[in-house]
Structure formats: C-alpha cells, structure tokens
Amino acid sequence: GVTALMAALQSDQFEIAGKLLDQPGIDLTVRDNEGKTVLNHLLKSKSMFYFDEIFDILSNTLNVHEIMTALLQRMIKCLEDWRSSKTVFMRILGYYDVNFNNGSLFNTIIQNAEADT
Length: 117
Fold this sequence. Notes:
Layout: H1 4-10, H2 14-21, H3 38-42, H4 51-58, H5 64-80, H6 82-93, H7 104-116
C-alpha cells in the first residue's frame, strides 16, 4: 500500500498533504509496497505542489542515482506532452543534473526531435 501522504500528493490533495507534512516526526523515507518513495508519488501529480520542500528533505536521505532517475523519468514523460507539461519540466530541470546517466535527458530530446522531422 501507500501512505496517506503519498496518496494525497499523487492525487493533488494539497490541503491534506500540507497537514500531513506539518505533523511532527513524519517520515518521508518510507516506501510503498513497490519500493517507491514520496518523491515518486509526488512526481505523478499535475502541479507538483510541495516539490521544493520534499526534494530538499529527500536529497539528504535518498541516494543521488535514485533521485535523478525519478526526475529523469518524469521529465521524459513531460516531453511526450510538452504543451501542458512545460512548466513542470522546467521546474524539475532546476534540480536535475544534466550530466546524469551520460546526458540521457538530452539524448532523449534529440531522439524525439529527430523522430519529429
């Protein structure tokens, strides 16, 4: 299963997520039954409310490879629907290491551009 916070974030229930995040001792490192983190569930939301706060906390507890992989997957998904996802893409880009995985984000962008021509 998932935690209440994971469900609230993924379904854009900001008020509930905010109240849960305000609880003392909330553990953002808990994983669901598939091994996914709060960050994975947040990245499924449309607006990514609380992204900055959650990223800052998890960047000190999760390994960099796991974080960058999750961000890369979301940004690649944004490329599929650029018009409605551009803002989310740009927000994540500020936290993403463009050199991660040998520049795979830019390789994906180039491949998509070549496929469109």
